[in-house]
From TrEMBL:
It is found in: Secreted. It comes from Pedionomus torquatus. One of its GO terms (molecular function) is carbohydrate binding. PROSITE patterns: GG_LECTIN. One of its GO terms (cellular component) is extracellular region. Belongs to the FAM3 family. It comes from the Eukaryota. Keywords: Disulfide bond, Lectin, Secreted, Signal. This is FAM3B protein. PANTHER family: UNCHARACTERIZED FAM3. Transmembrane segments: none annotated. Residues 98-162 form the ILEI/PANDER domain.
Length: 201
């Protein structure tokens, strides 16, 4: 019992002495010299956010770039009355806004030199406004659908004069009008796109 009393008394005495020394130290040290470290817990908790890099835009808005030594193309027929037909070749864009190109088309095809790529598209009615002579010339360029164009059909085509295009590229597409579709008798927009080796021309 005596030993335990001595231990308890020593503990109390040590506690009082530590408290007294702490108060004395606080009274003697100037307040402007006491610096309390500030911990930025927000910076510790916040995790870094990884952002995916912005994808690089490709020619004619392709998802992936054409291989070196290839031409990029995309042909869009337009949709309804608001979206006009467009042809893009190597990032040069041509917007089609005309109602009758039949005669111009025949002259252009006849005068185009061998080794020419010819990109064509219809918007509105190519069934009656495109004359038989023009359809025949397009057929000679390799079109399989030019005779199947109906009232307000959407049609896109890429042909070659004087050489043959690779079999694995998309050359032609057609879509017929439907009175029940979203454009009320106008066909939905169609498109063809691809890459053509430059050494073919």
């Amino acid at each position: 019992p005596l030993a335990e009393f001595v231990k308890l008394a020593g503990l109390l005495l040590s506690s009082v002495a530590a408290w007294y020394l702490g108060c004395l130290f606080a009274a003697l040290v100037p307040k402007d010299r006491v610096q309390v470290p500030i911990v930025n817990f927000q910076g510790i908790v916040k995790k870094p956010v990884l952002k995916a890099p912005v994808p690089k835009r490709q020619k004619c808005d392709h998802w992936s770039p054409c291989l070196p030594g290839h031409y990029a193309y995309r042909i869009l027929s337009g949709g309804g009355t608001g979206k006009l037909a467009r042809i893009c070749f190597e990032d040069d864009l041509c917007v089609i806004n005309s109602t009758d190109h039949s005669e111009e088309m025949m002259t252009f095809i006849k005068n185009a030199p061998k080794g020419s790529l010819l990109l064509m598209v219809t918007h509105d009615d190519g069934s009656t406004r495109l004359k038989d002579g023009a359809k025949k010339l397009v057929e000679e360029l390799g079109s399989k659908e030019i005779r199947n164009i109906k009232f307000r059909s959407s049609w896109a085509f890429i042909g070659a004069k004087g050489f043959k295009l690779p079999d694995d590229i998309q050359k032609e597409k057609i879509n017929h009008s439907d009175k029940n579709n979203r454009y009320r008798g106008w066909p939905a927009e169609i498109q063809i796109e691809g890459c053509i080796p430059r050494n073919l021309i």
